[in-house]
Design goal:
The chain is α/β, with parallel strands linked by helices. It has 2 domains: 8-280, Alpha-Beta Barrel (TIM Barrel), CATH 3.20.20; 302-380, Golgi alpha-mannosidase II (Immunoglobulin-like, Sandwich). Helix content is 25%, strand content 20%. It has 10 helices and 15 strands. The strands form 3 sheets. An 8-stranded parallel β-sheet has the order 7-6-5-4-3-2-1-8. Helix 5 (109-119) crosses helix 6, helix 7 (189-198) packs parallel to helix 8 (237-250) and helix 8 runs parallel beside helix 10 (274-280). The protein is elongated, with a radius of gyration of 21 Å.
Length: 381
């Protein structure tokens, strides 16, 4: 069953890359539950690339877990995850080899899908490296989509072709429950900005049962791990708030990428923020929109809005620029003209403070690389 709201979970790649093993996964699963991530709604524990042997079994042709990294096999890991009340995810690739040069699923889709089902896999991230032919992504993804649909187990299909070949035009035909339309994320604010801004023209490409995935979060990594970005400055907590806020308001799946075993209290409080998660998981799953066009040659700040269940809406003011920004946002941009006789009751999702707009505008001041997110209710002025 494809998801009605964006999937939530944790993936090994951003921090660990190829440095994965059974002990790491079991420890992370235990910590996942201990920290309350499961209670907050996160449910998938996903092992990314580099989990297998370099070649398939010559007799069965199956992909084989690396016996050094996973001595008791993947079914043991899946069973452990399931006993904790979580779901187990794995990785493969549409090409002949994965992005890290392990066996891909090209021309083995049905065999691999049955293998994953036998192990107890609930989620498959499916990459797009080392393709024999270009320009045919939709056919390869449909092939694995059919394999998963007939494998005998409900496995969420997470398509990851980085937005190539206009993926948003055909991805729903594959049965995928989520898909990537961006390049890979790095632990740098410029990467957060680039991905968030790139999605603004694509808000209409995400909806229930097939969500646009903005890639795994780097929140809380602080340049410790596999996707630390060269000479880029270590991200600040405010910059991580921008990333998590945008992923929530934009309606992206939320896949944590930090080492949750050493997650600090500040990061934990952010990624379990009930009001942000409630926006991300709003049952209507309506698309956000940019109600106010930025001035020419002045890209900051940006205002995003999203209608929520009932009569509420979310408003996010975000400054990706290098200087403080001041201004006024006109309520008419979200359908509340002065003549409506209404204003907004605004609850800050970070501070929990209540404020009220004017009858026509919301004044704002947003320092560089920060954001403000509000859950708003129209009330009589």
């Amino acid at each position: 069953m494809n998801p009605k709201t964006p999937p939530l979970g944790w993936n090994t790649w951003n921090t660990f890359g190829e440095k994965i093993n059974e002990q790491l996964i079991l420890q992370s699963v235990d910590k996942f539950v201990e920290l309350g991530l499961k209670d907050a709604g996160y449910e998938y524990v996903v092992i990314d690339d580099c989990w297998s042997m370099r070649e398939r079994d010559p007799k069965t042709n199956e992909i084989v877990p690396d016996p050094v990294k996973f001595p008791r096999g993947m079914k043991f890991v899946a069973d452990y995850v399931h006993r904790k009340g979580l779901k187990f995810g794995m990785y493969s690739c549409a090409g002949t080899r994965t992005c890290a040069d392990y066996p891909g699923s090209y021309d083995h889709e049905f065999l691999d899908a049955r293998t994953f089902a036998r192990w107890g896999v609930d989620f498959l991230k499916y990459d797009y490296c080392d393709m024999p032919f270009s320009g045919q992504a939709e056919f390869y993804y449909r092939r694995m989509g059919q394999a998963l649909r007939t494998c005998g187990r409900d496995i969420l299909f997470s398509a990851c072709n980085w937005g190539s070949e206009d993926v948003w035009r055909w991805i729903r035909t594959t049965g995928a429950g989520m898909y990537r339309s961006t390049g890979d994320i790095f632990d740098a604010f410029e990467s957060t900005k680039s991905i968030a801004v790139s999605q603004m023209p694509k808000f209409d490409t995400s909806a229930p049962y097939c969500f646009n995935d903005m890639d795994m979060l780097t929140v809380g990594m602080y340049k410790k791990g596999n996707v630390a970005h060269g000479n880029a400055a270590t991200q600040t907590f405010d910059e991580y708030k921008v990333q998590f806020g945008a992923w929530c308001v934009w309606g992206s799946p939320l896949m944590l990428g930090c080492d949750i075993r050493s997650m600090d209290k500040e990061t934990l409080a952010l990624v379990t923020n009930k009001e942000l998660l409630k926006i991300n998981q709003d049952p209507l799953a309506l698309q956000p929109y940019m109600p106010e066009t930025c001035w020419p040659n002045k890209e900051e700040p940006r205002v995003a809005a999203r209608l929520l269940e009932g009569k509420d809406l979310a408003l996010m003011f975000v400054n990706f620029g290098e200087n403080d920004a001041w201004g006024r946002f006109h309520l008419e941009r979200v359908g509340l003209p002065y003549q409506s006789g209404m204003k907004l009751k605004m609850r800050d999702v970070f501070t929990k403070k209540i404020s009220y707009s004017g009858r026509d505008t919301v004044p704002y001041h947003i320092p560089a690389h920060t954001c403000q997110v509000y859950r708003c209710t129209p009330v009589n002025a």
